[in-house]
């Protein structure tokens, strides 16, 4: 916003670029009127590019008994332990979708495609899984 506070700003000044020079032994500084000698420009050496490291995320191991149930609609994995059931993963087959229902003591996973569905249950108190095709 040029011109708003003009009295407080210094007018633009053009500055010529200059190169730094190394002083010879015994020379303290350049004298007035001396022009700096042009410096030789050197090409900087390329710095080596670090190789990217591949980081591997460690997946925590599920606690308890892992049960993998494969049905027409896909695959569902649960852990069953003293605390009950826990859903690890639900992977629907191509064209299927997953829907999860939970309540105290059980988990139901429905893998659905149009009129067909595969329901996979985990009943914590009984430490078992069950399936139902509909």
Order of the strands making up the biggest sheet: 4-5-6-7
Structural class by sheet pairing and helices: mainly beta
From the structure provided, what is the oligomeric state, counting identical versus distinct chains? single chain
Strand content: 35-45%
Helix proportion: under 10%
Distance between the termini: 72 Å
Give the total of beta strands. Answer: 7
Shape: elongated
Could you characterize the architecture of this molecule?
The chain is an all-beta fold and 134 residues long. It is built from no helices and 7 strands. The protein has strands at 65-71, 74-81, 84-92, 97-103, 106-113, 116-123, 128-133. It has a 4-stranded antiparallel beta sheet with strand order 4-5-6-7, with no helix packed on it. Strand 1 (65-71) and strand 2 form a beta hairpin. The mean pLDDT is 78.
Which features would summarize this protein structure in a list?
134 residues; 3-stranded antiparallel sheet; 40% strand; mainly beta; 4-stranded antiparallel sheet
In brief, what are we looking at here?
The chain has 134 residues and is mainly beta.
Task: List strands and helices in order, with pairings.
Layout: E1 65-71, E2 74-81, E3 84-92, E4 97-103, E5 106-113, E6 116-123, E7 128-133
Antiparallel strand pairs: 1-2, 2-3, 4-5, 5-6, 6-7
